[in-house]
Design a protein that fits this description.
This protein is an alpha/beta fold. The chain is built from four helices and eight strands. Strands 5-2-1-8-7-6 form a six-stranded mixed β-sheet. β6 and β7 form a beta hairpin. The longest helix is centred in the middle third of the chain and has 21 residues. The two termini are 13 Å apart.
Length: 190
């Protein structure tokens, strides 16, 4: 099977699903491939994730960033922490909109401090599907389509059917995370 996309995302964990969602939200054609099942593979799905307790108050934001810098013996860069803080706030607000089941306080306001991996990744799968992302589950990418001008897609196989796939894309996002058992695959030129 040969597919064409504007964006190919390799990896179906948090980074991959957020990249796929962001691209699809811009109205482009997105394909996401995962070696497992997007929504249950990877380290995040069976675990929990803590979130930076972001606050709307600018004074509190500054205090939080200063504490983080002090704890890191001033090794952290302020501009990166500011970006991380703001992105955490934006992403958390999106998760509330998507319907993540955060606990609430006595006023019904979501307490956004932790994500439970199974609920989080199931929600991200549903969210990217609603956004129009085509997902290839159990379909590891085995080779990048690359030349001197860059990467323009990937070749892989669907482990359930044994069928090879090729996705040609204008942009490729590699969001595969860590791999304890890295293998290099060599395939014949097509």
């Amino acid at each position: 099977m040969i597919y064409e996309a504007d964006v190919l995302v390799l990896g179906g964990g948090p980074a991959g699903t957020w990249a796929a969602y962001t691209a699809a939200s811009l109205g482009v054609k997105v394909v996401l491939v995962d070696k497992g099942y997007c929504g249950s593979s990877g380290a995040t799905a069976p675990s929990g994730t803590s979130l930076w307790n972001v606050r709307s108050d600018l004074k509190k934001r500054e205090e939080d960033i200063e504490k983080f810098i002090a704890r890191g013996n001033s090794l952290a860069k302020r501009n990166w922490l500011e970006t991380l803080y703001d992105q955490t706030k934006t992403g958390t607000q999106k998760l509330v909109q998507f319907g993540y089941p955060f606990p609430t306080d006595e006023l019904g306001i979501p307490i956004c401090r932790n994500l439970q991996g199974p609920e989080y990744m199931r929600l991200m799968r549903r969210t990217i599907q609603k956004a129009g992302v085509k997902i290839f589950d159990r379909s590891p990418a085995l080779e990048l389509l690359a030349d001197f001008s860059g990467v323009g897609g990937a070749i892989g196989v669907n482990l359930d059917t044994g069928e090879d796939w090729i996705v040609k894309a204008k942009s490729v996002v590699i969001a595969t995370g860590g791999c304890a058992f890295l293998r290099f695959y060599h395939r014949e030129k097509r």
